[in-house]
Structures are given as C-alpha cells and as structure tokens.
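hiii, so i know i said id send this last week but things got crazy w the move. better late than never?? heres the sequnce for the chain we talked about at the cafe, plus the structure i predicted for it. fair warning i was half asleep when i ran it
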Amino acid sequence: MSGVREVRIDRPERRNALDRATIARLRAELQAAAADADARAIVLLGGGDQAFCAGQDVKELGALDAAGALAVHAEGQALMAELEDHPCLVVAAVEGFCLGGGLELALACDARVAGASATFGLPEVGRDLLPTWGGHHRLARVVGLGRAKELVLLGRRLDATAAAAAGLVTEVVPDGGARDRAHALAAEAVAGASRTTLARAKALVTAGATADARTARLLDTLAEAGQA
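okay and structure toks below
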C-alpha cells in the first residue's frame, strides 16, 4: 500500500547487530521517511531469519576508547528517540532474536509483531553492561515495573507467547510471517487517517504515558485546537 515504507537492519551475518554505520543508515532512512509527506507508516525488520536485532555490535564497541563508546551511546539514543518521536506509525516485524539494543529498538516502535520463535531479552547486566538506549524506562512503561526488573536484573528472556501476554508484543504469527503481518497491520491502521492526525495521536499517547492528568488534558485541548 502507498504510504507504508520498509526499513531493514541488513546485517544478517552479524545477526543484525547495530554498528555505527548501521545506526547512521537507519537514522538517515527514518529522516527521509519523515520528510516524505506521503509516508504514514514504517515497517522495521531485520535481514535474514535468525534475528530482528541481536543488540549493539560488541566487537566494534570493544575496540573503542571511552570517548568513542560515549559517542556510540549518544548515536544509539538519538536513533531510539527518532523512532519514538517519528511522525509515522512504526511497526517492528520481529523474527528470531530481539535482544539488548535490538529490544530497545523494538520498544521505541509503536507496535511489535513477532514470529512464534522470537526471543526477547536484555542480557546487558549479566555481562556487566547497562541497557542505556531506553531499555530501562521504555520497558517499564510497556510491561510494568515488576516484569521489567525480571528482564533487566534477573536476565530473564521471554518467548513470543510470554511477550504477548506481557503486552510487549501486539501479535504472534507463524515463523516467517511477521513481515507480511506488520505490513498488513500498518496499512490497515493508516488507511483512514491523515499524516497529521497520526503524528498528533502518536505524540499524545507518548506524552500522556508520563504526564499528570492536568497536563494530559491541556495537551488534548491543544491538539484539538490544532496547536499541538
């Protein structure tokens, strides 16, 4: 359908791990979609069938000094923010592993469709690292504080069925079907909505998740008046 674009993390030989070049390319593609007035939805997926994204490229990270690692951290956070704040609806099509930075990437999307064998987790703490691309706060907002602590502090992993039960996944489909279902879901969602309405609705839901009631009502009023 016109209006639905596809963005692919295309490093299947590294289970679509996010290196600096991939982060930069994804940001450029997201910015191009934001500048395209006809784009209303994005389907984000990984290359190959083993992983949506296995996280940050730890091989590259290990070769960086402290300043380089901090720069990659800033670039990763910027990517997540651009996804969360994007004017288009963003649906992640998850097959295989969705771990670490890959789960943080999926959490920054608006909806997640998973193949039946998909696996979700944040293993960083067990490796003496931290999930600092938004994994702490976005995961807690999506699945609740208790379940978020299980994944972050206890290193628990969720299969697709458990992820759906926790509210992390919108739908579970047979393996290999996440891409097609994500496209269908996105096309259906944007069929009757203008780009402006989609962007405003998305911004209101995101802001409302952490706003107090008075602020949320003010945002609703401003949006209704076309000022937000």
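btw The two ends are 28 Å apart (CA to CA). thought thatd interest u
miss u guys!!
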